[in-house]
Design brief:
271 residues, alpha/beta, Rossmann fold, Hypothetical Protein, Haloacid Dehalogenase-like Hydrolase, Chain: A, domain 2, 2 domains, 6-stranded mixed beta sheet, 10 helices
Amino acid sequence: MAIKLVAMDIDDTLLDDEKQISSQNKETIQQALKNGVKVVLSSGRTFNGMVEYLNKLGISGDNQYIIIDGGGVVQTISGKIIYQKTLSNQAYREIDNYVQENNLHYNAVDVLGNTYTSNNDFIDKYTILQAFENNKGLKIKTPDQLPKDFEIVKAILNEDGEKLDAITEDVLAKFGQKYYVVRTDLGFLEIMPKNVDKSSALVHLADYLKIDLKDTLAIGDGENDIPMLKKAGIGVAMENASSKIKNLADRVTDDNNQSGVARAFEKYVLN
């Protein structure tokens, strides 16, 4: 088996706790790129939230790729869309209605990476963080103030951890049959199109590049990484991942503060 494509999470995987890329991670990734391996950052972030790290790694152009919005979009670094799936305007309104009825906070992201919310009494810190990462501001609008055909890539319920814990079962009961619901971080419960995740994005990209899935490697630490860890030829969990995720992976590498990505590249990609 020769690894030809690596799909890799960003937060708590590529990045350490200070949101930095270690020199070891950078060096091994750049060596893999020189060897012709496709290194694909795969994240719930939008494109703008990933540009800084793409630039630091020297990943650019028409023949390099990213998976953004949790798998909703696969594109080249230069912007050519390979695959994209959205939530309909009806779905967006259903989610907005649920948020308003239950006094919750949320934001939605469109295909251009813009951040929206209909909350106007209080903007929570997680929505502000999302808008900051997207670097396109925050648009405070109700669905009725947007075009009738307006669609989103995903909606993110934003509450402190304990409150999200308390509402997750109800959100799954309300939306889980029609949409993909996943907890991506402490204050983020995401609702995305059904059958859209990092795994489906990896399959679409591998098929586009004519790369057999057995020749792919996935590295991650979170719940939303599980599908791609299971789908890739080799799934590598970070040491800082939960026991559940480590038990599902094929291998476990060092944690994100100990250049675990570099260790995985050295063992499975550059050997």
